[in-house]
Amino acid sequence: MAENPETDDTIETTKQNQSEEEVEHSDEQKQEDELRSLLLSDIGDLPLSPPSATQVNFVSYFITDFTKPGHDQYIYRHANGLCVIGLAPTHIAFKDEGGITNIDFNVGKSDRSVLKVSGKRKKNAMRSESNTALCKVSTAKDSYIVRCCVKGSLLEVNERLIKQPQLLNSSADREGYIAIIMPTRPADWTKNKESLITLEEYKAKKEVSL
Amino acid sequence: MADETKPASGDSAGLSNGLVSHGDHKSRRVYQAARSLHSGAVKDLLSLGVCERCIFRLVSVEAFDSDLSSVSASTLRSWLESGDEEAASSEESSCCIVCLGVLQFVFSDAKQTLVRSECGSDYAARVTDLVKEEGHEFDSFGLEVYVPATILENERAVLLYLKGKYNSESWLQSEKISVKDALKVLVLDPLKVSLGAKSDSSSFQIRLTYSKASDEAQGASETTRERKKRKTDEENGSTSMSENSFEKVYEPCILSIHCNKMPIFFSGRYFKYSRNVSQTRWIIDDERMGEASVEELIGGNILPACLGDSYKFHAAGREDIDSSIIQVRMLGSGRPFLIEVQNSRKCPSQQSLTEIEEKINKSEKKLVGVKDLKFIGSQCWAMMREGEAEKQKQYAAIVWIARPVEEKDIDSISSLKELKILQKTPVRVLHRRSPLERERTIHWMKVEKIKGSSHYFLLHLCTQAGTYIKEFVHGDLGRTTPSMGSILGCRAEIIQLDVTDVKMGDS
């Protein structure tokens, strides 16, 4: 078992390089650890199911039996005043077999889905009253008119629904939203609000757990 | 108070009659110029009440000269009047009906005291005192002079009168230097001497503003009717101006001095440690939102060191109040910013800036950190512009998903490079921004599991400037695609977001 000095040397150097790399690596590691502990320091206990972005950023309002029985809609109002409109879970359209199969924005005098609102001042936005028709949703059985519920400017309709109406069935409260309306004056919203009910009241009324 | 019989310029050793027959070339030239003026016009103007230097301005053919500054008004008067080198006017001249005392070096100060100066250097000394009160440090200055509009009207009236009497004279045809420019010619050099500074179109301006003492007493501005009459008279070629037209009361102007320094800039990078600190002052209905602002924590420390009037904060980008900008052992570059200070009186040294930086970094409440604070010149805007465009930003987000995180999720996310996403203007800013669809790039992502939780993970990502991260995670009602949720096929929410790095160009 003769010792080979050359190999020994090489082994020595490799060991040295390795430990240098290790030092570098552990420096990086330290930084990563420090970053991670900084990042995680504020959160406290992570709840099993945190509130959703909608719940955090919006106040939920509902209107039930709007112009016709069973026509229940939600109005999610953001802190900046914008209102997201959609179908509440108890809307009668969902009761039909097969759910909603089609949506048509061409109601009233114009096709709501071809609006081109532009600029900070939201030029060309359609003015809406609370009972202005927004769209028509159809099931195998029947079709139902959805209305604006809010007086203001119609900024956007969810045109994804045209190709994917099933979003209304699967997530009417998120990806299946129908439109975004900006109330033009604070006074308009205050007046509007009188005909709306809160989430608690809605739950109580419909005896539904959401 | 200089002796009225001597010219203020020094050089008249031994001669008691105000004459400098040899020695002072300047005064000699002025004397000769005075003698060469049209004597009829001079006499008329003197009796109307026009001051000596205005007479030079209006009647002389030669250019108005700074030499006039060193000869006292009374000496000038004696040279204009009789040419008698011995006589000297001993009355105090009344306020000029054209320049209202401006070229006579007479004004009212803030306390309404009348201030008279014999010559340009005396006047400059008074102005210097007032400038010093403003407290600026400077080695060069620009001079601005503002005079009331009535001076122009007074001048027009006198010229009209002169045209009426001496229409064909050649000296009347040349362009006359304005009162404003004449004052600058007279006082610029003496000011340079008494302020000890150079003159240039520099970043430090001294503004001399003359204003009417009172409305009635200034040969008050023309009424519309008077103006119409004057214009028609001019057109008709008739001049109704006579010596009687000038019988109003004239009072010297009030002089106020204002010094202004152009804004100076400081650059640096900041870190934000608190989730309750907004970037800029945020006040709604008189109530402050958040605990403090980055702008005030930094600007509020720099402003006093500059003895400035106010400051403006500019940053290359912004983050939400509830996001922090992380600093790990001085890594992470922080967000670039500029502080612009208006009307600073002094420019703090780099040493002072370093001390300010330390003070902010060592403060008890660790809200904000600063690095690389330094003075920066006119290239600051180019720096900000290039920063805005090029920067990539790195973030760390805490994400929750509706189902447990699996290894394949970690792999599928990390494998996405240069992912293009389309973001419609987020609902949370849609009220104040244009409804647009913006394409953005997520350069890379990395997932780290969090101990003790199967639904949460740490997401590190590097994105193009202008990407809305929160919306990329929760999808913003499907208006950002793809989103974390759509990639993983389930609902995703963002719990916390921090900026870990802001790269600018090569830095």
Notable characteristics:
heterodimer; A: 210 residues; alpha+beta; OB fold (Dihydrolipoamide Acetyltransferase, E2P); 7-stranded antiparallel sheet; 3-stranded antiparallel sheet; 32% helix; 25% strand; B: 507 residues; 7-stranded mixed sheet; 4-stranded mixed sheet; elongated
Mean pLDDT of chain B: 84
Q: What percent of the residues of chain A sit in helical stretches (DSSP H or I)?
A: 25-40%
Provide a count of the helices of chain A. Answer: 6
Average pLDDT level of chain A? 85
- Largest interface by Cβ-Cβ < 8 Å: A-B, 39 and 37 residues
Structural class of chain B: alpha+beta
What is the number of beta strands of chain A?
12
CATH architecture of chain A: Beta Barrel
What does this structure look like?
Chain A: Pfam families: GCV_H (PF01597). The complex is a heterodimer of chains A (210) and B (507). Chain A contains six helices and twelve strands. Chain A has helices spanning 5-40, 53-57, 160-163, 166-171, 186-193, 199-206; strands at 58-63, 73-78, 83-87, 100-104, 106-107, 110-111, 126-128, 133-139, 143-147, 152-157, 179-182, 197-198. Chain A has a seven-stranded antiparallel β-sheet with strand order 7-10-11-3-2-1-12. Chain A has a three-stranded antiparallel β-sheet with strand order 4-8-9. In chain A, a hairpin with a 2-residue loop joins strand 5 and strand 6. The longest helix of chain A is centred in the first third of the chain and has 36 residues, at 5-40. The radius of gyration of chain A is 29 Å and the shape is elongated. The N and C termini of chain A lie far apart (78 Å). The relative contact order of chain A is 0.15. The mean pLDDT of chain A is 85. With 507 residues, chain B is of the alpha+beta class. Chain B has 15 helices and 21 strands. A seven-stranded mixed β-sheet of chain B has the order 13-21-16-19-18-17-20. The longest helix of chain B has 18 residues, at 149-166. Chain B is elongated.
